[in-house]
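Whether sequence alone determines local backbone shape is best considered at the level of individual chains. Part of our work consisted of pairing the sequence of a single chain with a tokenised description of its backbone. This step matters because it turns folding into a mapping between discrete strings. For completeness, the protein is quoted in full, as a sequence line and a line of structure tokens:

_____
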Amino acid sequence: MDLHASVILVLALAVLGGLISSGLTKRMRGPQVLGYILAGVALGGQGINLIPIETVKTLTPVSFIALGIIGFLVGAELEFHELKKYARKFSTILVIEGLLASLLVAIGSFVVVYLALDNFTYALVVGIVLGAISSATDPASTMGVIWEYRAAGVLTTTLVAIVALDDVLAMALYGIASNVAQRLSGEGGSIMHSVLHFARDIGGAVVIGAVVGYGLVLFVRRRGNSENNLFVMIGAVLLSVGLAQTFESDLILSAMTAGIVATNLAPQHVKHLMSQVRQVAVPIYILFFVLVGARLSLSGMPGWIWAVVIVYVIGRNGGKVVGAWIGARLSGAEPVVAANTGLGLFSQGGVAIGLAIVAGSHLNNIQLTEALTLGDAIVSIVTTTTFLIQLTGPAAVKWALLRAKETNRRLSVDDILAQHTAGGIIEPYFSCKQGMSLEQVITNFGNHPEVESVAVLKKDNQFIGEISLRDLRPVLIERDMWPLIIADDVVNSQTETVSSDTSLDEAAKIMENLGVEQLSVVDDGKFAGYLLRNKIRQLVKSKTLTASAA
């Protein structure tokens, strides 16, 4: 059987290989992202060649979908009230670290290429393009490490904002650099054409994302907490990616804008779906990084390209560390932000590779040597630097978070529910004694609209059963019969109960299966109180905020 012809088999090998490799790197206390990339290297042209470059190109839409989901999730982390709170700090750090990294890479690359080829124009073009691309920070691997280690805090907030805005800065710099490079190489059009092209890339993406995001908000507001909201949200991400591709705008910025609009206009509907979206996106996320590794081609690269690679890595990482430190100091950011932000910005991935591929297609007609075009050189340099940087980038993010003591702060809902029991949040409210008249029962219901059923007890507090509003419907219209009916006549003795020791995750599942908002808590046959779903939600919200602020 021809392995190369079977895309489905390639997808299976990529996902399974990525999982196995990430498991090994995790055992060695390395981030999972590195394992995915190493699996791609092993399965690609530099390894056993089960995923050749032709297949990688065939699976490009998978990378686009992954970048769209990543962009949406990053955008959903950017809340306006947080951005306003740290706006000056974020913007100062962003501009200085991005521009300094770009400047150092541009100068270093120009010098190496000029010394190697003795061509000022080609050296300048390479320097300008690589400098612009180098400012991008990979949100996928950075956010992957943040989510993996459940980080929260001022450094985490800074990193989330910077990695999202870094790509906007990179795309803006690339838009300028690409037009300048094409004009220098004789491939560009008029200045007006360049301006319109740049406006379409950036402005079009923002408009598409804003429209899709607002449409998503209108839908989830109308449907409430529908079980279909998750699929609608994924559909919205795919729509933003597809429209961006159709109108030749930036797909990452489009999806990111959709996420920003959705999370800020409908946070109560969007936030609780984020963890589900991440779970659904895991296979695509793995495929994306496996394909990044499979794309790598190290054989046959001339020595001067390796020199550019070394200069690029040193200049980029150094620029981000020093630039972030300067920006943080100038903006008055916390010492932990100044000391660690640069380390959290090492990762480079899909955005940089995507920009390199676009640049390569524009500059592929320029022959540097008999066997190498300018476009191929840029793609090779960026892909190789991405691999090398990713060997240390995710680990650097982890180290920065550990130094800032911000790991394991973002507790998941499942974690919180598993750590607490029903006994911790039970509410006494009212109960009915055996023999109580129906009129008294109904009056008590009216005084406590927050409950949907009431426990019926013997004199020694022994639990008999419950009376729910549903049980009372047949007799509510027969008001003349109320004095003749007592609680014992309408009690349901077959109701589901939990004990004080029941974990909240188990209790929540019971509520979900029964479609109820409360359960009676009974210990050794005696009534202890009510467990309300609303109280569970309040506990989760409280514990999440407390962990994030710690």
